[in-house]
Amino acid sequence: MIESAGIFEYATAPEGVRPTLRDRYGHFIGGAFVEPAEGEYFRTINPATEEVIAEVAEGSKADVDRAVNAAREALPAWSALPGVERAKYIYRIARRVQELSRELAVAESMDGGKPIRESRDVDVPLAAQHFFYYAGWADKLGYAFAGGGKFVGIGEDGAPLTPALSPGGEREQRHRVISPVGVCGQVIPWNFPLLMASWKLGPALAAGNTCVLKPAETTPLTALMLAEIFEEVELPAGVVNIVTGAGATGAAVVEHPGVNKVAFTGSTEVGKKIAHAIAGTGKKLTLELGGKSPNIVFEDASIDQAVEGIVQGIYFNQGHVCCAGSRVFVQESVAGEVIAKLKRRMGELRVGDPLDKNTDVGAINSAAQLSTIERYIDAGKSDGGAFWQAGGGVPSSGYWCRPCLFEGVQPSAVVAREEIFGPVLAVMTFRTPAEAIQRANNTPYGLAAGVWTDKGSKIFEIAKWLDAGVVWLNTYNKFDAASPFGGFKESGFGREGGVHGLRSYVTFG
Ligand code: NAP
Ligand code: MG
Fold first, then answer.
1. Nearest CA to 270 among 251, 252, 256?
2. How many domains does the chain have?
3. Atom 46 in ligand 1: which residue has the minimum CA distance?
4. Which of 21, 11, 26 is nearest to 67 (CA)?
5. Rounded distance, CA 286 to CA 271, Å?
6. Which one of 40, 265, 316 would you pick to mutate in the ligand 1 pocket, going by the greatest count of ligand atoms within 8 A of its CB?
7. How many angstroms separate the CA atoms of 301 and 387, rounded?
8. Which one of 223, 287, 317, 417 is most buried, by most CB atoms within 10 A?
């Protein structure tokens, strides 16, 4: 009776919408899916079940060459389109990402293991937001940089076009020329696959560049779904090319002589190799690398709020976050209370099926990453830290690590120094603000930091001494397309997001 009245009809749950996936994906080159030159494919699996989801083309040097040539050919027409026309394509992409948000979120969680709650509420909306945001800049590039300028495309000869004559017939001498960099080689990691693709493609396309994107080996699917969106919105052929494969494919993209700009997000180790590989070539480079970010809790902070922030900071996306708050510094007077509350909260986190919307912590991205995390946990134990892990089981197949922490960690311990990229927290204490700053900065990295205190004046005083690209105050892991993100020291250079993110995709003449 009640059912027939329809009052118990619910909207479909996000995990109820399954994306339409192909069994096999080629590379997306020159506006179409194509077979790999050497005919090789690899499998991408679901790390929560170990089941194969699809076969994906393995990119050889010949494939990369073909993709770079397609991007080169597309460059003059794309870069010379009026900005308002380029914007229309990018807006269409953004809208289509929104319309397909459920399919994309489910695919992201299946391919990478992250909880659907995160892919649905964070990854996909932010990816759409990045495309919307940069679409808005496409026809305003002359106003984007201090001093302004005149945006011009790139000609068939690879050089910037000459600015048009003004209505009076005189050349606009007073404006400097802003032009696209050219063909961009973009290599991205597995922790935020769709979001990283949007961070890379949004500003590059808005500024009239063409792209060759290489997604991570374990998570290529949402980039390939994005390629289907490009087909649907009739993005001109060759403007974005996607070549899948492992590290060697990434190296072939980066080293290709036809690439003018390299944008890399990934580990500091690979970032250093890339910097070596392209030194002296004249290629423009931005590196978004690893981190070991501090979350600093003062005794006057709202403790419950800070505990939530610590949990958000390190257990979000299983700790596979470049800016994860993986080192927590707690003022000694409140350390007992913070750690007790933190453990209680960690015990409440649900670990399991990424497609269950109640899940807080999903699967570790790959078997290789799980063994890295386990090695770090063993090293932390041998270094003498007190290990604690939330109780409870994990599914019988797939790769899992329950949230854990080390207390009493020495600054010299491996778990305090090296990026683990997993749900492992190092908890340390401090007495004075000066000590907190000194210990927080005692790392080769400088990506992000969190400060928890009730005092506004203290927040700004502390934040200005921290070597970090982003400092979050009484919050953590907050992102917005209008806000620049990037690191200091071994966390890389260059900024993504905001008007700052456009700068590395243009040249000034
Ligand atoms: P990674 O091993 O450095 O891989 C990143 C990407 O580079 C992948 O697509 C990878 O291909 C490719 N690659 C590997 N070797 C290469 C080479 N020699 N030349 C060119 N490309 C190569 O990093 P990951 O393990 O995937 O990601 C985790 C790391 O990324 C962490 O250190 C994290 O901090 C960092 N990260 C930083 C940010 C940021 O914004 N700063 C954001 C996210 C992640 P394969 O997939 O085949 O390995
Ligand atoms: Mg996968």
1. 251
2. 2
3. 216
4. 26
5. 9
6. 265
7. 25
8. 223
pLDDT score of 7 more than 90: no
Binned at pLDDT 50, 70 and 90, residue 168 comes out as low
For residue 430, the surrounding DSSP H or E stretch is strand 424-430
Q: How far apart are CA 108 and CA 118, in angstroms?
A: 10
Residue 10 in this model has a pLDDT that exceeds 90: no
Same domain? For 280 and 309 the reply is: no
Tell whether the model's pLDDT for residue 472 goes beyond 80: yes
* Single-letter amino acid, residue 121: D
Q: Are residues 232 and 376 in the same domain?
A: no
Q: Are residues 259 and 187 in contact, defined by beta-carbon separation less than 8 angstroms? A: no
Residue 507 burial by Cβ neighbours in a 10 Å radius (0-12, 13-18, 19+):
middle
Whether 249 and 306 map to the same domain: the answer is no
Is 265 touching ligand 1 by the criterion CB < 6 Å?
yes
CATH of the domain at 82: 3.40.605.10
On whether both 284 and 392 belong to a single domain, the answer is no
- The one-letter amino acid at 324: A
Which of 490, 474, 463, 380 has its CA nearest to residue 427? Answer: 380
Over the stretch 91-144, which tens digit does the pLDDT of each residue have? 999 999 999 999 999 999 999 999 999 999 999 999 999 999 999 999 999 999
Nearest CA to ligand 1 atom 47: 246
Q: Give the separation between CA 243 and CA 183, rounded to whole angstroms.
A: 14
**Side chain identity at residue 308, one-letter code:** E
Give the residue numbers marked as catalytic. 288, 322
User: Considering only CA atoms, which residue is closest to atom 32 of ligand 1?
Assistant: 267
pLDDT score, position 1: 44
Is residue 490 lining ligand 1, measured as CB closer than 6 Å? no
* Overall pTM > 0.90: yes
* Tens of pLDDT, residues 410-422: 999 999 999 999 9
Q: What is the pLDDT of residue 75?
A: 98
Query: Could you tell me the residue range of the domain that residue 421 belongs to?
Result: 294-478
Nearest CA, atom 9, ligand 1: 216
Q: Which ligand is nearest to the CA of 274?
A: 1
pLDDT, one tens digit per residue, over 187-228 is 999 999 999 999 999 999 999 999 999 999 999 999 999 999
Tokens of 374: 């386990």
User: What is the 217 CA–ligand 1 centroid distance (Å)?
Assistant: 10
Listed in sequence order, the residues at least 6 apart from 491 whose beta carbon sits closer than 8 Å to its beta carbon are: 268, 288, 289, 290, 291, 322, 445, 446, 447, 469
